[in-house]
Specification:
Blueprint: H1 2-28, H2 33-54, H3 64-90, H4 93-100, H5 103-113, H6 121-138, H7 150-174, H8 179-197, H9 200-207, H10 212-234, H11 239-245, H12 248-261, H13 267-288
Helix pairs in contact: 1-3, 1-10, 1-12, 2-3, 2-8, 2-10, 3-4, 3-7, 3-8, 4-7, 4-12, 5-7, 6-13, 11-13
Length: 289
């Protein structure tokens, strides 16, 4: 079952990586990142609601605390999807995906502030390593010829911070209720939040466009199927293994961007990506021990 769990988590990560590439394709066709994010969440919500109905007899009672933590998770995933796509639009799939995976560092910093985690030299060393990787990836070491725009960098880091918020919300909600209940509530709140900020005319135009298939594929791979695979797989493997295998996402996204979309990465940017991903993997494994 251990290898089955690793396989499911890996499939989920591959789906997430491909979803970033699909979003880039849609943005190149002129669609707004917020509209793309909304459809990803709506299709995901439909998948989770069906899952919720199929497991209806296994559902625990829904408490106020479950609603609150699920709502926090929904805010986090809404920010994560939206900022991730904005970062892709302003930079590239590879850069956006790598910056998003700085989430464990934000989790660590928040844990320091809340006194959940003890501050150690190892943890600060990991934070420093990630910052070094970000500087190399974005070209911030040379302000005259920076390779990634400020918007691309800020949106990518905001996606990571939002991902950290989702992790906190989902972890606490799942300790109260079942994952399918948590995801259903979280993505319902996600849809309500993004609907407020979405161009309603453009969102309606998607339904009659030739790109509707891309939107459905994005939602199924990037939300519905991938989250179900991940939640199922994480039960059969350790958090350390899941953290390492999940790094397949930025690698998949990078390969999709370079091979399919034609993104270009410099040698220094590749070194920066490696520094970030290796540091985050080491941190995640150490935190899981």
């Amino acid at each position: 079952m251990k290898f089955a769990g690793i396989g499911l988590v890996m499939l989920a990560a591959i789906c997430w990586g491909i979803s970033g590439g699909i979003a880039d394709v849609l943005m190149n066709k002129g669609w707004d990142p917020i509209v793309i994010s909304l459809y990803r969440g709506v299709v995901g919500f439909i998948c989770f609601f069906v899952w919720f109905l199929l497991r209806f007899r296994q559902n625990r009672g829904i408490s106020t605390r479950l609603y609150i933590w699920s709502l926090i998770a929904g805010v986090g995933v809404a920010g994560n999807f939206t900022f991730y796509f904005l970062s892709i639009e302003a930079s590239s799939v590879a850069v956006a995906a790598t910056l998003m995976y700085t989430a464990p560092v934000f989790v660590l910093l928040i844990s320091f502030l809340l006194r959940i985690e003890d501050s150690t030299w190892f943890k600060w060393g990991c934070i420093t390593g990630v910052l070094l990787g970000i500087i190399l990836l974005t070209g911030a070491y040379n302000t005259e010829s920076i390779s990634v725009s400020f918007l691309g960098m800020a949106a990518g880091l905001a996606a990571g911070l939002s991902y950290a918020l989702f992790i906190f919300g989902f972890k606490n909600a799942s300790s109260i209720g079942n994952p399918h209940t948590t995801l259903t509530i979280a993505f319902f709140s996600f849809c309500l939040i993004l609907f407020l900020f979405t161009d309603k005319g453009e969102a309606a135009a998607v339904l009659a466009s030739r790109d509707i298939g891309w939107f459905l594929l994005l939602g199924i791979l990037g939300a519905g199927l991938s989250f179900i695979l991940y939640v199922t797989g994480i039960r059969w493997t350790t958090p350390a293994n899941a953290s390492m295998v999940a790094m397949v996402e930025p690698v998949t996204a990078s390969l999709f961007g370079v091979l399919v979309i034609g993104d270009q990465l410099t040698g220094i940017q590749i070194v920066g990506m490696v520094v970030i991903l290796v540091t985050i993997t080491v941190l995640s494994v150490k935190q899981s021990d």
